[in-house]
Amino acid sequence: MINCIIVDDEPHAIEVLDHYVKQTPHLRLVASFTNPIEALQLVGQQKIDLVFLDIQMPEISGIDFIKAIQGRSKVVLTTAYSEFALEGYDLYVVDYLLKPIRLPRFLAAVQKAIEQINALNESSSQEMTADDYLFVKTESKGKLLKINLADIDFIESMKNYVAIHRGGQKTLVYTSMKELEERLPKKQFIRVHKSFIISIARITGIEGNLVRLKNVSSEVLIGENYKAELMEIIKGKMIQ
Q1: Helix (H) or strand (E) holding 27
Q2: Residue 71: left (phi > 0), alpha (psi -120 to 50), or beta?
Q3: If exposure means fewest CB atoms within 10 Å of the residue's CB, which of 41, 57, 144, 226 is most exposed?
Q4: Nearest Cα residue to 66 out of 39, 45, 46
Q5: Mean pLDDT of the residues in the chain
Q6: How far apart (Å, rounded) are the C-alpha atoms in residues 114 and 59?
Q7: Which of 174-183, 203-212, 229-238 has the highest mean pLDDT?
Q8: What class, spelled out in words, does domain 133-235 have in CATH?
Q9: Is the pLDDT of residue 95 over 70?
Q10: d(CA 9, CA 32)
Q11: Per residue, what are the HEC states of 68-116?
């Protein structure tokens, strides 16, 4: 099921799209908005796959809205003005619907969106499957251990070894932080200190130069040379 929202400052336009969405398999309407600021907040809080978005709105335009969500959702533009089409396509929107919108044209746009969303999901699934575990050499000679990446809380440098922390367990691995950092998927892990690599999914909060992790009792120190990269990731999910 594809989660979608409608953003348009005209209630009648929302009524038309609402009616079309309810007739379309695979679409689930999460909410409708006449205020694009409220819609932005929802996209930042929930997984919204598709946005039906008007271009000319008060406060912020549809184009500004697209730039603000930074690719988190696919977008189908809806407008009464064809001159905005080129700018919309430059921002990689799925399709451009000119008002008054007819159901066959709406369904064609939805089909394009479904194909793009399914392709994106398939690509992400393949990437996760390819990068979901590592085999490491432990402190025991000749022993290899399989480590599931989803189980890792954080990784700590310990001289000639690194310690992989998983659910309260610590596994010593004979390798360097640099080598391990290069092998870990950057979408899942980030180095926050010369001595620490953390799981992005485990982050529960940041206070000053300390980061708190789920299921970890003590905070992890953030090094000054690494803080900017961490905050750049956080900023993409931050509501000002």
Answers
A1: strand 27-33
A2: left
A3: 144
A4: 39
A5: 87
A6: 30
A7: 203-212
A8: mainly beta
A9: yes
A10: 10
A11: HHCCCCEEEEEECCHHHHHHHHHCCCCEEEECCCCHHHHHHHHHHHHHH
For 143-188, the pLDDT digits (tens) are 788 899 999 999 999 877 899 999 888 988 888 898 888 888 888 9
Specify the pairing of strand 144-148 against strand 133-137: antiparallel
For domain 2-127, the CATH class is alpha beta
Instruction: Give the closest residue to 79 by CA, choosing from 101, 51, 111, 50.
Output: 101
Amino acid at 29: L
Phi, psi (deg, nearest 5) at residue 12: -65, -40
In whole angstroms, give the CA distance from residue 1 to residue 83: 33
pTM flag (> 0.90)? no
pLDDT above 70 (res 85) = no
Q: Do domains 2-127 and 133-235 have the same CATH topology?
A: no
Give domain limits for the chain: 2-127, 133-235
Q: Closest Cα partner for 191 from 161, 151, 160, 162?
A: 162
The four Cα atoms 230, 239, 201, 73 give a dihedral, to 10 degrees, of -110
The reported pLDDT for the residue numbered 221 is: 94
**Distance in angstroms (rounded) separating the CA atoms of residues 196 and 118:** 36
The dihedral sign for the CA sequence 43, 105, 9, 89: positive
What amino acid occupies position 63? I
Terminal CA-CA length for the chain: 30
Q: Indicate the pLDDT class of residue 50, thresholds 50, 70 and 90.
A: very high
**Amino acid (one-letter) located at 112:** K
